[in-house]
Design brief:
Layout (H helix, E strand, L loop, with lengths): L1 H10 L4 H8 L3 H14 L1 E2 L2 E2 L1 H12 L5 H8 L3 H11 L13 E5 L15 E5 L2 E4 L5 E4 L3 E5 L7
Antiparallel strand pairs: 1-2, 3-7, 4-5, 5-6, 6-7
Helix pairs in contact: 4-6, 5-6
Length: about 160
Protein backbone atom coordinates (compact mmCIF):
# COMPACT_ATOMS: atom_id res chain seq x y z
CA UNK A 1 0.00 0.00 0.00
CA UNK A 2 2.83 2.43 0.87
CA UNK A 3 4.58 1.51 -2.37
CA UNK A 4 1.51 2.37 -4.46
CA UNK A 5 1.13 5.71 -2.68
CA UNK A 6 4.79 6.59 -3.18
CA UNK A 7 4.71 5.58 -6.85
CA UNK A 8 1.50 7.54 -7.42
CA UNK A 9 2.88 10.67 -5.74
CA UNK A 10 6.10 10.34 -7.74
CA UNK A 11 4.25 9.95 -11.05
CA UNK A 12 2.06 12.94 -10.17
CA UNK A 13 5.19 15.10 -9.96
CA UNK A 14 5.66 15.40 -6.20
CA UNK A 15 9.25 16.27 -5.32
CA UNK A 16 11.14 13.55 -3.44
CA UNK A 17 11.30 15.81 -0.36
CA UNK A 18 7.52 16.13 -0.28
CA UNK A 19 7.13 12.35 -0.61
CA UNK A 20 9.54 11.86 2.30
CA UNK A 21 7.58 14.26 4.51
CA UNK A 22 4.13 13.08 3.42
CA UNK A 23 4.76 9.41 4.13
CA UNK A 24 7.30 9.90 6.94
CA UNK A 25 9.93 7.75 5.26
CA UNK A 26 13.62 8.18 4.46
CA UNK A 27 15.12 9.26 1.15
CA UNK A 28 16.72 5.83 0.96
CA UNK A 29 13.29 4.15 1.27
CA UNK A 30 11.81 6.29 -1.52
CA UNK A 31 14.70 5.36 -3.83
CA UNK A 32 14.34 1.68 -2.86
CA UNK A 33 10.64 1.77 -3.81
CA UNK A 34 11.34 3.54 -7.12
CA UNK A 35 14.20 1.27 -8.08
CA UNK A 36 12.28 -1.81 -6.92
CA UNK A 37 9.49 -0.83 -9.30
CA UNK A 38 12.10 -0.36 -12.02
CA UNK A 39 13.48 -3.85 -11.41
CA UNK A 40 10.00 -5.41 -11.48
CA UNK A 41 9.32 -3.65 -14.79
CA UNK A 42 12.45 -4.82 -16.59
CA UNK A 43 12.06 -6.93 -19.74
CA UNK A 44 15.47 -8.20 -20.81
CA UNK A 45 17.06 -5.00 -22.17
CA UNK A 46 13.91 -2.86 -22.03
CA UNK A 47 11.03 -1.96 -19.72
CA UNK A 48 7.29 -2.58 -19.69
CA UNK A 49 5.01 -0.06 -21.35
CA UNK A 50 3.49 0.57 -17.92
CA UNK A 51 6.88 1.65 -16.56
CA UNK A 52 7.53 3.84 -19.61
CA UNK A 53 4.14 5.51 -19.09
CA UNK A 54 5.09 6.03 -15.43
CA UNK A 55 8.26 7.84 -16.57
CA UNK A 56 6.36 9.96 -19.12
CA UNK A 57 3.74 10.89 -16.51
CA UNK A 58 6.45 12.04 -14.09
CA UNK A 59 8.07 14.05 -16.87
CA UNK A 60 4.89 15.86 -17.91
CA UNK A 61 3.54 16.52 -14.43
CA UNK A 62 6.06 18.98 -13.06
CA UNK A 63 9.25 20.94 -13.33
CA UNK A 64 11.49 17.91 -13.06
CA UNK A 65 14.40 17.43 -15.41
CA UNK A 66 14.68 14.23 -17.37
CA UNK A 67 18.19 13.77 -16.02
CA UNK A 68 16.77 13.91 -12.46
CA UNK A 69 14.22 11.24 -13.34
CA UNK A 70 16.99 9.06 -14.76
CA UNK A 71 19.10 9.53 -11.64
CA UNK A 72 16.21 8.84 -9.25
CA UNK A 73 15.20 5.67 -11.08
CA UNK A 74 18.79 4.56 -11.72
CA UNK A 75 18.33 4.36 -15.49
CA UNK A 76 19.94 5.89 -18.55
CA UNK A 77 18.76 9.41 -19.49
CA UNK A 78 18.20 8.20 -23.05
CA UNK A 79 15.72 5.63 -21.71
CA UNK A 80 13.77 8.48 -20.09
CA UNK A 81 13.85 10.47 -23.32
CA UNK A 82 12.60 7.52 -25.38
CA UNK A 83 9.82 6.74 -22.89
CA UNK A 84 8.69 10.37 -23.02
CA UNK A 85 8.78 10.40 -26.81
CA UNK A 86 6.71 7.21 -26.92
CA UNK A 87 4.14 7.98 -24.20
CA UNK A 88 4.39 11.68 -23.35
CA UNK A 89 5.93 14.89 -24.59
CA UNK A 90 8.44 14.40 -27.34
CA UNK A 91 10.40 17.42 -26.22
CA UNK A 92 10.70 19.76 -23.31
CA UNK A 93 11.52 23.18 -24.63
CA UNK A 94 10.67 25.07 -21.49
CA UNK A 95 12.80 25.91 -18.53
CA UNK A 96 12.40 23.25 -15.89
CA UNK A 97 13.76 25.23 -13.01
CA UNK A 98 13.82 28.75 -11.68
CA UNK A 99 17.61 28.35 -11.97
CA UNK A 100 17.46 28.48 -15.77
CA UNK A 101 19.26 31.83 -15.60
CA UNK A 102 21.85 33.38 -13.34
CA UNK A 103 21.52 37.13 -12.92
CA UNK A 104 24.74 39.13 -13.11
CA UNK A 105 24.22 42.72 -11.98
CA UNK A 106 26.00 45.56 -13.71
CA UNK A 107 26.17 47.18 -17.11
CA UNK A 108 27.94 45.12 -19.77
CA UNK A 109 28.67 45.83 -23.39
CA UNK A 110 28.22 43.10 -25.95
CA UNK A 111 31.90 43.12 -26.98
CA UNK A 112 33.13 40.87 -24.15
CA UNK A 113 31.82 37.97 -22.08
CA UNK A 114 30.30 39.03 -18.74
CA UNK A 115 31.38 35.68 -17.21
CA UNK A 116 35.01 35.28 -18.31
CA UNK A 117 35.70 38.76 -19.80
CA UNK A 118 36.99 37.23 -23.07
CA UNK A 119 36.56 39.33 -26.21
CA UNK A 120 35.76 36.37 -28.47
CA UNK A 121 31.98 36.61 -28.48
CA UNK A 122 29.35 36.11 -31.15
CA UNK A 123 26.35 38.40 -31.23
CA UNK A 124 23.32 36.11 -31.53
CA UNK A 125 20.68 38.84 -31.76
CA UNK A 126 20.02 42.40 -30.51
CA UNK A 127 20.36 41.40 -26.86
CA UNK A 128 22.13 38.02 -26.77
CA UNK A 129 25.80 37.05 -26.95
CA UNK A 130 27.61 33.71 -26.99
CA UNK A 131 31.17 33.38 -25.66
CA UNK A 132 33.44 31.19 -27.79
CA UNK A 133 35.84 30.67 -24.89
CA UNK A 134 33.62 29.59 -21.98
CA UNK A 135 30.50 28.59 -23.97
CA UNK A 136 28.20 30.89 -22.01
CA UNK A 137 25.19 32.59 -23.51
CA UNK A 138 24.09 35.91 -22.02
CA UNK A 139 20.91 37.91 -22.47
CA UNK A 140 21.72 41.57 -21.99
CA UNK A 141 19.27 43.78 -20.08
CA UNK A 142 19.53 47.45 -19.09
CA UNK A 143 21.31 46.99 -15.74
CA UNK A 144 22.17 43.27 -15.71
CA UNK A 145 22.66 40.18 -17.85
CA UNK A 146 21.08 36.76 -17.57
CA UNK A 147 23.52 33.89 -18.05
CA UNK A 148 21.71 30.88 -19.52
CA UNK A 149 22.19 27.74 -17.43
CA UNK A 150 21.86 25.09 -20.10
CA UNK A 151 21.85 22.27 -17.54
CA UNK A 152 18.40 23.42 -16.41
CA UNK A 153 16.92 23.49 -19.90
CA UNK A 154 15.78 20.36 -21.68
CA UNK A 155 15.02 19.62 -25.27
Amino acid sequence: MLEKKVLSAYADGSPIGVIIESFNITHKKVIEILQGYRDESRLKKSFTDEFKKFIAERDSSGDITRSSIAQELGINANTVKKACEQFGQSSKERAVSNQAYTRIDGEFDMKSCPSCKNKKVNIVDDSTTYCKKCGSEHIHKEDHVLKVNFEYLEE
